[in-house]
UniProtKB/TrEMBL annotation:
This is Copper-containing nitrite reductase. It catalyses: nitric oxide + Fe(III)-[cytochrome c] + H2O = Fe(II)-[cytochrome c] + nitrite + 2 H(+). Residues 78-151 form the Blue (type 1) copper domain. GO terms for cellular component: periplasmic space. It comes from Caenimonas koreensis DSM 17982. Belongs to the multicopper oxidase family. InterPro entries: BlueCu_1, Cu-oxidase-like_N, Cu-oxidase_fam, Cu_oxidase_CS, Cupredoxin, NO2-reductase_Cu. Keywords: Copper, Metal-binding, Oxidoreductase, Periplasm, Repeat, Signal. Binds 1 Cu(+) ion. Residues 226-331 form the Plastocyanin-like domain. Its EC number is 1.7.2.1. Homotrimer. It comes from the Bacteria.
Length: 493
């Protein structure tokens, strides 16, 4: 059966999957060919063929990523006659990585950024019509990088140089729809551990009056150790997953500066669920590589809140490691405990199966279908069993700040061999429960649990959807000391 795809379906699939089209950018003077073959005879154009040149740079305007021409026009309509040669000189104005594609004409530029400098896309337009150009980097079209190419007239008889496009060609459509296979490469030898230390909890605030706090974080893209012999390109806050835990008290004013590393390829941002207004800060912290922006907010509501990157595709940025938590203490602070730990669960979607000894690439189709290859605590397999362990002594009370970055899955948080004495359900200080075995935590949600440990041993932190333990979601609470009599004993009385 012959299979055809509409141009809108092709464009949607390309934007979702980040497909690179088969036609590449060429140096000035080199003609480009469409992938689809002509099925008809071209007729003479009403206008003589010409070369039309456009200079476009990318930028952020009114919170959106856009193309801008040399007159300052945002996402300008480009015009030409059928048979004209179009030359588009492209430059990244804010430094992030982009491209320009016109799927209906089977045309795509090379990717360009501040690091690559300008690139030139040159092609001949075979027919009239209104065509959409956009950036195919995942999320960029959704945030504004889209414009029109308006072509008048009829095709020029030049089939030997540039065949007329045939949008009904199943083969051409499927070539666009199907992404090229990602070449396998070995794990990156420069990969480092990105696992946040669970003991990295800021000091308790207590009974002080409200004041102004200043925080600064940097978004960094770097190769990290996902598993033994496996690496992944993480996107992070301050080179760790989760990002640093922030701590304030209700009534504090917080100034937060977000910087994006100069060598980043992507724009990044931050949305804090503790913030009222400005999309949680995401509206005003879309930060290009090498730049920084600041927001100021008042901590109005006490509780434990998730923060994450809010740059499209948002789930892609989250799945790459861009999440963390902020604790807003109630007036008077929290009851004192012996130890506090910071743990977050996330999912990772990779092109190769779980455990493959390679450098893993993100798989956005698996992400859209919610089929994770890995579930991790603090960013990597073994983060809380090999790299770090939670520790306590018999008789101590342990408080765990637990959140789910997601982007998609609920966690059934459980500690094998223990019962939560106190649970602050959904991270709310007004939602206190006692004697809880397993607590549900939504993606983008949090909880606080407290345990008074009474027997030595190794206690496993898990998501009680236990198949996920085999995919990485396991941590260890190591308890030492003398057991409390009568609590537990191996064997009969």
């Amino acid at each position: 059966m012959k299979r055809t795809l509409s141009s809108s379906a092709i464009a949607t699939a390309i934007c979702l999957l980040g497909v690179t089209l088969s036609v590449q950018a060429q140096p000035a003077g080199h003609s480009m060919h469409n992938a689809a073959a002509s099925s008809g005879t071209a007729t003479a154009a009403a206008q003589p063929a010409a070369t039309k040149r456009y200079d476009l740079h990318t930028n952020i305007v009114d919170g959106k990523m856009v193309f801008v021409d040399d007159k300052g026009q945002v996402n300008p309509t480009l015009s030409a006659n059928a048979g004209d040669t179009i030359e588009i000189v492209l430059e990244s104005g804010e430094g992030a990585e982009h491209d320009l594609v016109i799927p209906e004409l089977n045309v795509a530029s090379a990717k360009f950024s501040a690091g690559t400098g300008k690139t030139t896309l040159r092609f001949k337009v075979p027919r009239s019509g209104a065509f959409t150009y956009y950036c195919s980097i995942p999320g960029h079209r959704q945030i504004g990088m889209e414009g029109k190419l308006q072509v008048s007239g009829t095709a020029v008889a030049d089939a030997g140089t540039v065949p007329a496009a045939n949008t009904d060609s199943s083969q051409a459509a499927l070539a666009l729809y199907t992404p090229a296979p990602v070449p396998q490469r070995a794990a990156d030898p420069s990969a480092v551990s990105v696992a946040a230390n669970p003991a990295g909890v800021p000091a308790a605030i207590g009974t002080r009056a409200p004041k102004t706090l200043k925080y600064r974080m940097e978004t960094v893209e770097l190769p990290g150790k996902l598993d033994d012999g496996t690496s992944f390109t993480y996107w992070t806050f301050d080179r760790q997953v989760p990002g640093p835990m922030l701590r304030a008290r209700v009534g504090d004013t917080v100034e937060l500066t977000l910087a994006n590393a100069r060598d980043s390829k992507m724009i990044h941002s931050i949305d804090l669920h503790a913030v009222t207004g400005g999309h949680g800060g995401g509206e005003h912290t879309q930060v290009a590589p090498g730049q920084e922006k600041a927001i100021t907010f008042k901590a109005l509501n006490p509780g434990l809140y998730v923060y994450h990157c809010a740059t499209p595709l948002v789930p892609q940025h989250i799945a790459a490691g861009m999440y963390g938590m902020i604790l807003v203490e109630p007036e008077g602070g929290l009851a004192k405990v012996d130890r506090e730990y910071y743990v977050m669960q996330g999912e990772m979607y990779t092109g190769r199966p779980h455990g493959a000894k390679v450098h893993q690439e993100a798989d956005l189709e698996k992400m859209a279908n919610e089929l994770p290859d890995y579930y991790v605590f603090n960013g990597e397999v073994g983060a809380l069993s090999k790299t770090h362990k939670l520790q306590a002594k018999v008789g101590e009370t342990v408080r765990i700040y637990f959140g789910v970055g997601g982007p998609n899955k609920i966690s059934s948080f459980h500690v094998i061999g223990e019962i939560f004495d106190t649970v602050y359900s959904e991270g709310s200080f007004s939602g206190i429960k006692h004697d809880v075995q397993t607590t549900l935590v939504a993606p983008g949600g949090a909880t606080i649990v407290e345990i008074k440990v009474q027997h030595p041993g190794s206690y496993l932190l898990v998501d009680h959807a236990l198949s996920r333990a085999g995919k990485g979601a396991v941590g260890v609470l190591e308890v030492t000391g003398v057991p409390v009599p009568g609590v537990y004993k191996a064997g009969p009385l």
